[in-house]
Design goal:
Blueprint lengths: L6 H24 L6 H14 L3 E2 L11 E5 L2 E3 L13 E10 L2 E10 L15 H17 L7 H14 L3 E2 L5 E3 L6 E5 L16 E9 L5 E3 L6 E3 L5 E9 L6 E2 L7
Antiparallel strand pairs: 1-4, 2-4, 3-11, 4-5, 6-9, 7-8, 7-9, 9-12, 10-11, 12-13
Helix pairs in contact: 1-2, 3-4
Length: 259
């Protein structure tokens, strides 16, 4: 069942979102050539704890890190490792925060060394354009998160932007409701038909995600049993924000750019 949140619950999620945004910002600021996923994960862990939050990913059975770190052809759920980042890597950082039992989730993708770099996995488009499209698709989806619209409106806005630019939405991985649990109903796919699906109500809380690839939309599970990679080795990208469905405009709870 999908619920609208009370004012008290929304205030707790706002606080959780501020911690998540601050943790993502410190991680992105640290992202540089020579840094490792484990170093980024420790920074995030320390930041979340210092602000009074807890690690949402601890609620996922068998997972013991604060973040998911993916590089290049990896798409989601990557385990932080000691691999050193190199200039031109496409890095995605995904993290979630729990505060008094209320969760928020956020993710962002960047190019190590700057978005003007060409990634070694590049085929027909620059990695910087790939990320630009993903970010724009996220904000277009968020724009649809208003009272009276549908899940399909969000999904279609994302799909239209990504696919019109020649990239591909991963169909097997989706956004989700969020609140007392990290993953709740409803599912929020990055593809769909406008005007279909659950009718949104003000006060619902969603983790809207753009999960996409430069090549095939198909993904494969790595030997670590966590990391999903593009089946053809092309770039994977991830953008995510936790939002509150609004009467006239969605409220973004995890915008790291405003920290």
């Amino acid at each position: 069942m999908v619920h609208s949140r009370t004012d008290i619950e929304l205030n707790l999620m706002r606080q959780s979102g501020k911690i998540a945004a601050a943790a993502l910002k410190i991680a992105l600021d640290y992202t540089k050539e020579g840094a490792s996923g484990l170093e980024i994960d420790k920074l995030v862990t320390d930041k979340i704890y210092s602000l009074g939050g807890d690690l949402s990913y601890k609620t996922v059975s068998g997972y013991k890190w604060a973040t998911c770190i993916t590089v290049n052809e990896q798409v989601v759920h990557g385990i932080p490792t000691d691999r050193k980042l190199v200039k031109g890597d496409l890095l995605s950082i995904d993290l979630a925060v729990s505060l008094h039992g209320w969760h928020t989730d956020v993710a962002w993708s960047v190019i190590v060394g700057g978005e003007g770099e060409k990634n070694k996995n590049k085929q027909s488009f620059s990695a910087s354009n790939f990320l630009k499209v993903g970010e724009e698709a996220l904000w277009l989806g968020i724009k649809q998160a208003i009272d009276g619209n549908t899940i399909g409106d969000i999904s279609n806005a994302i799909q239209t932007k990504v696919e019109n630019e020649g990239y591909h939405i991963v169909r097997t991985l989706v956004g989700h409701g969020i609140g007392k649990k990290l993953h709740e109903d409803p599912e929020v796919p990055g593809f769909g038909i406008a005007g279909t699906g659950l009718i949104l109500q003000a006060g619902m809380t969603l983790a809207i995600e753009v999960i996409y690839t430069e090549g095939t939309p198909n993904v494969v599970l790595s030997d670590d049993k966590w990391t999903y990679c593009s089946a053809d080795g092309s770039l994977g990208g991830l953008f995510e924000m936790t939002v509150v469905v609004g009467k006239e405009k969605a409220e973004v709870l995890t915008d790291w750019r405003k920290v």
